[in-house]
């Protein structure tokens, strides 16, 4: 995997201390997700919020609307914009030590950034899914941070089924039409109908304040409801030692060129 190294002066210490990180790593190993309070301070958070607004105003060719035309709100996504918005790269650098501790990895790279903005009143839920089956990456050290810059109440937050990071890989489908565009139909087990039996699953979720984030494994099953208030989020996807790109027969989400560079956030 090719890389580029982020200048060390961009690095800032994460808020959780070593004892907190040790407990978080145990929780992450058990559940595949943890909530980290105050992982980003106000100054960087303000730069990230500005970058999100600039990103929404100037979407990349990979941007897409993930809500229907009859939705009273709007769900917008974009991918791979760290080249254009330095605050995303700065955010990745500032939080890489947390990702490293949770993965138990020596190195951390930035795989990509993912913008996820639900405008106030958006009804479109994000269906239950795992992230890694959409990627071109195999291996265990794949982790995401989902960081809102607006307060997110419990009912609109990202939710997780604890323990699903142990596998198996589940069938990725398109969010709006439920189509199998990645792995061939029947080749993976389908995602269970969690909404039909919420009490039957160990669902975790946290109300979040700006600066808080959730970190979750690439195989942890997750979903979100619509949003009552504006919900601006950027998610950073990191790769550790045991992660490798693999050629796929289909267009991955996001589609990243074979010769792309992945900034080395922490060197082994
Ligand atoms: O923000 C959302 O609604 C969904 C987020 C998500 O699925 C992800 O970050 O992988």
Describe it for me?
With 268 residues, this protein is of the alpha+beta class. The protein contains three helices and 15 strands. Helix content is 18%, strand content 26%. Strands 1, 2, 3, 4, 5, 8, 11, 13 and 15 form a nine-stranded mixed beta sheet that branches. It is globular, with a radius of gyration of 17 Å. The two termini are 14 Å apart. The N terminus is likely disordered. 2-oxoglutaric acid binds next to strand 5, strand 8, strand 12 and strand 13. The site of 2-oxoglutaric acid has 11 residues, from strand 5, strand 8, strand 12 and strand 13.
Q: Quick one: CATH class?
A: Mainly Beta
Percent range for β-strand residues: 25-35%
Total number of β-strand segments?
A: 15
Mean pLDDT: 94
User: Class by helix and strand content?
Assistant: alpha+beta
Q: What share of residues is helical? A: 10-25%
Residue windows where pLDDT falls under 50 for at least 5 positions: 1-14
Count up the helices: 3
Rounded to the nearest angstrom, the distance between the terminal CA atoms is 14 Å
How many whole angstroms does the radius of gyration measure?
17 Å
| Largest sheet properties | 9 strands, mixed
In the CATH scheme, what's the topology name? Jelly Rolls
């Amino acid at each position: 995997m090719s890389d580029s190294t982020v200048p060390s002066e961009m690095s800032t210490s994460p808020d959780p201390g070593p004892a907190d990180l040790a407990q978080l790593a145990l929780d992450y190993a058990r559940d595949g997700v943890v909530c980290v309070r105050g992982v980003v301070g106000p100054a960087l958070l303000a730069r990230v919020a500005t970058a999100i607004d600039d990103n929404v105003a100037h979407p990349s060719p990979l941007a897409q609307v993930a809500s229907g035309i009859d939705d009273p709100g709007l769900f917008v996504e974009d991918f791979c914009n760290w080249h254009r918005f330095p605050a995303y790269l700065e955010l990745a650098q500032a939080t890489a030590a947390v990702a490293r501790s949770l993965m138990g990895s020596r190195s951390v790279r930035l795989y990509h950034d993912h913008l996820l903005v639900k405008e106030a009143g958006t009804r479109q839920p994000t269906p239950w899914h795992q992230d890694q089956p959409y990627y071109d990456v195999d291996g265990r050290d794949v982790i995401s941070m989902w960081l809102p810059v607006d307060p997110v109440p419990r009912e609109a937050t990202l939710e997780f089924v604890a323990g699903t990071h142990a596998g198996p890989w589940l069938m990725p489908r398109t969010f709006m039409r439920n189509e199998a565009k990645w792995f061939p139909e029947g080749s993976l087990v389908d995602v269970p109908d969690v909404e039909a039996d919420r009490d039957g699953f160990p669902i975790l979720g946290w109300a979040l304040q700006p600066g808080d984030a959730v970190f979750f494994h690439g195989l942890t099953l997750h979903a979100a409801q619509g949003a009552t208030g504006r919900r601006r989020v950027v998610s950073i996807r990191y790769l550790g030692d045991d992660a490798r790109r693999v050629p796929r027969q289909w267009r991955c989400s996001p589609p990243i060129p074979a010769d792309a560079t992945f900034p080395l956030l922490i060197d082994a």
